[in-house]
């Protein structure tokens, strides 16, 4: 595990690192709790925090809270408080402040390793749950909720001085495919389109036969090229079915992010373009 350790004493930091490093853990030691928090916040690879309560400038309990909020967002982070006080009150206070576990200072090697094994089990389970919660089971694409979260991040990144384009994709007359060839063939069509879309920027399945693609660092011209290439590839698809291979097409709505615009604004304009693509004959790209 990549572990941040916070204690005001370099001797304690050395001691704990000395116990953990031989077991393959990578240690980031901090005597300054604010620096530790900054580091953890900027490095999602940190999956455990071991902190003493008597640290500065942020107290150990406050650090637990702040780290807990980071961890709850979308990353596993186990928090272990280390204290020389064995009082029940201290233990309860630490757990109530967001810590997962408590260990006496200085820790014994055996106990520390056992607590980290327990932390690793929880982290593994949380990672699996996050993956499940963010993934569309049919296509393996990011689902709507996770896509929207990533979209907000992409807009924030673009706000820092970049470009960003959005493409909405909707399979044409999909109901007819389901009606004529059955739901299973429909599912295969959805999977085939999903697999064409994935690998181009941030791809998500928004619903039934509707997909979205965000292209960081792409302006409208580049996005139109990507959409047109996808359109051709969709037309070239052949979905195996009992009565022979099934062809399909998609309509595409493209928009480019405008400075100050929200995710909703960007996707709304792509949706208007998609609607126009539908109403003017389908199997086309409109911006
Ligand atoms: P348009 O060209 O205007 O987009 O027409 P359409 O038939 O594609 O659009 P419509 O929204 O009317 O129909 C979408 C259909 O997609 C309706 C729904 O039964 C079907 N559908 C939604 N989710 C799934 C799925 O997971 N699998 C399959 N096979 N069908 C689905
Ligand atoms: Mg529709
Ligand atoms: Mg459709
Ligand atoms: Mg649709």
Residues in helix, %: 40-55%
Distance between the termini: 46 Å
Element-level helix/strand string: EHEHEHEHEHHEHHEEHEHE
Please report which band the strand proportion falls in: under 5%, 5-15%, 15-25%, 25-35%, 35-45% or over 45%: 15-25%
Read across the widest sheet, the strand sequence of neighbours is: 2-1-3-4-5
Number-wise, the strands total 10
Ligands: 3'-deoxy-guanosine-5'-triphosphate, magnesium ion
- Main β-sheet description: 5 strands, parallel
The tally of helices reads: 10
* Low-pLDDT segments, ≥5 res: none
Category from helices, strands and their pairing: alpha/beta
Radius of gyration: 25 Å
Domain Response regulatory: 2-120
GO molecular function: diguanylate cyclase activity
Domain GGDEF: 162-287
Enzyme class: transferase
Overall description:
The chain has helices at residues 10-20, 33-42, 60-74, 88-96, 109-134, 144-159, 174-181, 183-197, 220-236, 263-279, and strands at residues 2-6, 26-30, 46-52, 78-83, 101-104, 164-171, 202-207, 210-216, 250-256, 285-286. It is of the alpha/beta class and 287 residues long. The strands form 2 sheets. A 5-stranded parallel sheet has the order 2-1-3-4-5, with helices on both faces. Strand 1 (2-6), helix 1 (10-20) and strand 2 (26-30) form a beta-alpha-beta unit. Helix 2 (33-42) packs parallel to helix 3 (60-74). The longest helix is centred in the middle third of the chain and has 26 residues, at 109-134. The protein is elongated, with a radius of gyration of 25 Å. The two termini are 46 Å apart. The model has no long low-confidence stretch (mean pLDDT 95). Residues 170-172, 174, 209 line the site of one magnesium ion. 3'-deoxy-guanosine-5'-triphosphate binds next to strand 6, helix 7 and helix 8.
């Amino acid at each position: 595990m990549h572990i941040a350790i916070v204690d005001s004493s370099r001797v304690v930091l050395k001691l704990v690192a000395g116990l953990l490093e031989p077991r393959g853990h990578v240690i980031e030691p901090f005597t300054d709790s604010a620096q530790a928090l900054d580091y953890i916040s900027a490095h999602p690879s940190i999956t455990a925090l071991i902190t003493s309560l008597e640290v500065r400038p942020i107290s150990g309990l406050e650090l637990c809270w702040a780290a807990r909020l980071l961890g709850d967002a979308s990353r596993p982070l186990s928090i272990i408080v280390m204290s020389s006080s064995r009082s029940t009150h201290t233990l309860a206070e630490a757990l109530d402040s967001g810590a997962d576990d408590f260990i006496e200072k200085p820790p014994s090697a055996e106990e520390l390793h056992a607590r980290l094994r327990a932390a690793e089990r929880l982290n593994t389970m949380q990672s699996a749950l996050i993956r499940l919660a963010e993934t569309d089971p049919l296509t393996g694409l990011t689902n709507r909720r996770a896509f929207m979260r990533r979209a907000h991040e992409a807009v924030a990144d673009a706000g820092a001085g970049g470009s960003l384009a959005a493409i909405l994709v909707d399979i044409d007359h999909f109901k007819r495919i389901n009606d004529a060839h059955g739901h299973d063939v429909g599912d295969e069509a959805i999977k085939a389109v999903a697999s064409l879309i994935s690998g181009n920027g941030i791809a998500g399945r928004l619903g039934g036969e509707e997909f979205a693609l965000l292209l960081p660092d792409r302006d409208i011209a580049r996005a139109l090229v990507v959409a047109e290439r996808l359109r051709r590839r969709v037309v070239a698809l052949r979905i195996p079915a009992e009565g022979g291979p099934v062809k399909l097409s998609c309509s595409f709505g493209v928009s480019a992010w405008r400075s100050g615009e929200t995710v909703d604004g960007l996707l709304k304009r792509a949706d208007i373009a998609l609607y126009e693509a539908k109403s003017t004959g389908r199997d086309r790209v409109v911006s």
